[in-house]
Amino acid sequence: YPCFIKAQMPMASRKNYMAKCIDRNDLIGALNKVAAYSDCKILVEEFLTIRKEYCIVGFCNKEKVCIPEIIEEIVLGHGPHAGVTCFGKVRKPERMADFIDKLQIFLERVDFQGFFTADLLETDKGYYFCELNLRLGGSGTAVIGGGVDIATLYADAVLGKTDINYDRTCNEITFASERPLLSDYILGFISWNEYMDFINKADFRFIW
Predict the structure, then answer these.
(1) How far apart are CA 118 and CA 134, in angstroms?
(2) Residue 3: which of 25, 34, 35 has the closest Cα?
(3) Hey, is 93 helix, strand or coil?
(4) In the chain, where does DSSP find H-type helix?
(5) Among 50, 56, 99, 124, which has the highest number of CB atoms less than 10 A from its own CB?
(6) CA-to-CA distance for 175 and 184, rounded, in angstroms?
(7) Which of 66, 48, 56 is nearest to 137 (CA)?
(8) Which SS3 state, helix, strand or coil, does residue 198 take?
(9) 45-87 pLDDT, tens per residue?
(10) What is the spatial distance between Cα 174 and Cα 40, in angstroms, rounded to a whole number?
(11) Mean local confidence (pLDDT), 97-119
């Protein structure tokens, strides 16, 4: 202890099944709370302090994978937007080339087609894979802010165009997602000055 619990299959559960448990009694209480709502399997893991969170964004057209960026999640939301990226940086994918190579091989082998985001956690013990989401989400808007229209690229791929640059990468920019930031201000998690500071220092802003 402390340990961390989360659902083995997040698709069939809720995010509030995730919790840090400081001792055995805390763990039993958290598991009983889950059992009151669901019979989903729960993973009990070593608790590690997260230094940074990253999101790898891209799409796969069966045998070809396009990953134009990595998002460094600098500020996350609270309350109803807990875990949602409020402010972040768009980074070039070369920063995590080894993991990206493995992710590309996996997606190509399973013959996947569609958008995806892969979440990574940086701790004192290294990088840990968190989850793979088969959707684009708000991260796709940050990709557009970095200069790559990922939705159009995927549409062109599905339509069979052959001149697609799968190796195209984004410009490195900062971005702000206004909806969770405004929610944090309204609910009292941040001040108006803090809200405006995030808005003013972002190279790109969007509402999601």
Answers:
(1) 9
(2) 25
(3) helix
(4) 24-35, 97-109, 139-145, 150-158, 178-186, 192-201
(5) 56
(6) 17
(7) 56
(8) helix
(9) 889 888 889 999 999 987 788 999 899 989 989 988 887 899 9
(10) 38
(11) 88
Closest listed residue to residue 88, CA positions, set 54, 129, 121, 131: 54
In this structure, the strands spanning 126-133 and 113-123 are antiparallel
Does an H or E element contain 54, and which? strand 50-61
Q: Give CA–CA dist 83/96, Å, rounded.
A: 22
CA–CA gap between residue 131 and residue 62 (Å, rounded): 20
CB 170 within 8 A of CB 69: yes
- Does the pTM exceed 0.70? yes
Look up residue 155 and give its two tokens: 């549409």
Which amino acid does the sequence have at 69?
E
Q: Which of these, 21, 49, 22, 46, lies nearest to 34 by C-alpha position?
A: 21
Nearest to 126 by CA among 68, 34, 52: 52
Place of tokens 């840090």: 20
Q: Rounded distance, CA 112 to CA 59, Å?
A: 9
DSSP codes joined into one string, 110-165: TT-EEEEEEEEEEETTEEEEEEEESS-TTHHHHHHHTT--HHHHHHHHHTT-S---
Residue 202: DSSP 8-state: -
